[in-house]
Amino acid sequence: MAFVGAVLALVLWLFCGSYIAAEAVYPVENGANWFSRHVGSRIKSLFAGSSAFSENKRLREEVARLRMACAESARVADENRRLRGMLGLDRPGDSVPFSTNRWICAPILSRGAAVGNPCVLRLGRGSLAGVKRGAVVAVPEGLVGRIANVTPNTSELRLITDPSTRVACDVELGGDAGGDDEAQSSSLAHGILYGRGHSTVASTEASILYIVHPLRVRNVERQIVLPQRAKIITSGLGGVFPRGLTVGFLIDGAHGDETNLEQEGDVEPAVDFLSLENVFIRRED
Amino acid sequence: MSRPLTSYLWRTCSSAVKTKAVQICFTLICLVAAAAMQELLPAFVGAKTPMLAVFAVYTAFRPSRNWILVAVAAGALEDALNGNTSLCGVCFALLAATGAHFARSFEYGMPQAAVGAVAAMITAPVHEIWLSAWGALPPGCPMIVRFCASALPSAIAGAFAFAFLPAAEVFAGFDGPQSGRRQR
Hints:
heterodimer, A: alpha+beta, Thrombin, subunit H, 6-stranded antiparallel barrel, 6-stranded antiparallel β-barrel, 2 helices, 15 strands, B: mainly alpha
């Protein structure tokens, strides 16, 4: 009887353990987060002195300006949708109405799970806030990753630097890019972005510096000349990531891959993953 | 009927059962707090302080028969937080707790906090080796760096745990006047 109970407990833990553990640890993590934000920020403000007041005033003005811009964007989006409808240019992905509540702000509770995997972050919003598995996560600077697991109050974010991540993307070629053939006539080149994880600076010797490996864009057409510092954005192909989110910038010119049929290049992420405090989760309506 | 069930149970249970319930709750709170601390402590070059294993080691050091259960629970919690289904954390917690249980028969000529610091300092690098052997270690960081990065914070955490937990246990009723009063 005890053996059957133990086996049942094991099976239950293997299937629901992650869910239960994340929810059990959430109050403590959230408490620590709350303490850091409320008490820590007050202590910092003591040392910041009068600059905090002027910064507060500037931020209020910035928020008011952004509200105005948001309202204007909603009007433009409405007009754009109406005109597209009149021209018959509607595509399935374009019919989503503009919403200012599409992005859910989520604080980062902890990094790296229990063993320190740098590509995993735990966020303080879950299914109760409308977060779903697979949702896209971004910040104003660019794309951050996707939600891998969701519990009622927390969610697990997998960064785009994770080696298992693939993102359909476009390389912006700009107006003055070289190349003379048909492919170059388009201002975008399609490619697939691969995450390459994190490591210390030198893998062969002891080093305490901790860096994010550059991402890599692959499968770009061979004939296209990619400019240096070209911007990489999500292409929306595949339907996983929405179109137009900034991913990063090409570090230097691309080179041919091992087959020499296509080219690839290293990409510097647009987001500084180590300094993130809040992220925005896209709500799928 | 108007009274809640918990209140009814609390009034009808014997003192020994109440003490046991308080002890179980205390252990669960310690496990959750250790798991949260393990997640929250800054990931220095990717290494984390194995707080759950330190708690399992502490429980194995004290005169208790439940150290195996605590070790299994600590390991299961770590596995669940990592999304690891290979029971790597459970096996490590059991190994660490077994080692500590046998080591408790030696006589130590040093304070309890120092014993905790040394025990945690040994546990942390072994934890890294164990994760590496099971393939559960995230790639991209030299092992020697992770050894140092996990051992140094572990020593502080171990010393703190071994110094603080005995007093907290007496307060919760594992030993001392609180426990005696309930059982009378």
